[in-house]
Here is the input.
Amino acid sequence: MCAAAIWTTTLVSAQTRDVEGTIRQSSEAGQQAMQRGDLEEAEKDFLKVTALAPQDLRAHLNLGIVYMRQKKWGRALEELRTAEKLAPKLAGIRFNIGLVYYRQGKYHEAIPLFESVIRDQPDFPKARQLLGLAYMLDERFADAAQALEKLWPSMNGDLNYLYELALSAGKAGRHDLEERALARLLEADQQSADLHLLFGKTYLSRGEDERALAELEKAAEINPKLPMLHYHLGLIYKRKHDYEKAKAEFLEDVAIEPDVAYSYDELGTVSLDLVQEDEARGYFEQALKRNSKLPTAWYGLAKIEREGKHYAEALKDLDEASALVPASASVHYLRAQTLAQLGRQAEAQKEFATVRRLKREALDTLEQQMMGTSYRDPELAAEQK
Here is the structure.
């Protein structure tokens, strides 16, 4: 080999070693940044790795996790899908993709991913629990009960799990399983504020408001600062049409947990009932600042804008609500009225036709939530740590 060829080979080898060294150092630095919670620095380090080594599985996976922690769902999904292509048999990657959908409230999309994880790893308890919750939140209660029941041997001492199991079993008509879960709950410490809150939520889901109120008041005697306690008390008073008391309870919950969007959402609703539209607007905006995926808040804002004859603004809010709950007759009806007031008669008539079809097909839950006639438990949809 001539001297020039030897020199070139040596140079290429040195450059390769330099690149490999940079990749290794950036990867290690990214890991360390993640461990200390410096997500921006971790992102920079892992992006260096993917720029030099586009097929580096670990870097794409770590970037996906960084973006998940930052709640940058679109970028997280992009990185995790790239990782999935590189290692399609790794169930953990599909679990994280499912988790991205779940945390966005896209339960229908999360379900097949969690199902595939369970097929590959039947003994993955977190995946099975999230699958059960996704089924429940997608209103597939029989599937939820079946999935959660399989966790009984390892989780029958977990109060939240028992509540989830009792709720899904009850709605699925599996009252034997519901009673077993409730009986196990009763074996827990009767002086537990958490337990009384769980029973209160169970009775609320059944529409047994007086029994729910009794349990929640017991919880308040033990621990008046328990998160979500005053939220549920507020729901009961809203159902009773005692909007002043309901508002006071939701405000109490906000004082304890100022970052929970649902309490602001409910404050907006009861403020509308109290004809306090300026306050209602502020609460709905606070709710959407914390969670832009609340259709009731968009719908509430649209009602306020329409009442003020700000029809274009109302239509924008209704478009947001419609994207989240496309099968809501309430949203389509208000949208039809708003379009008519804007002089867009042909579009309005199409919306009215959609309302008639939806009314024939299913009950609308959005107005029921705003009126307090249906129960939603925001903690079921909360991020699972």
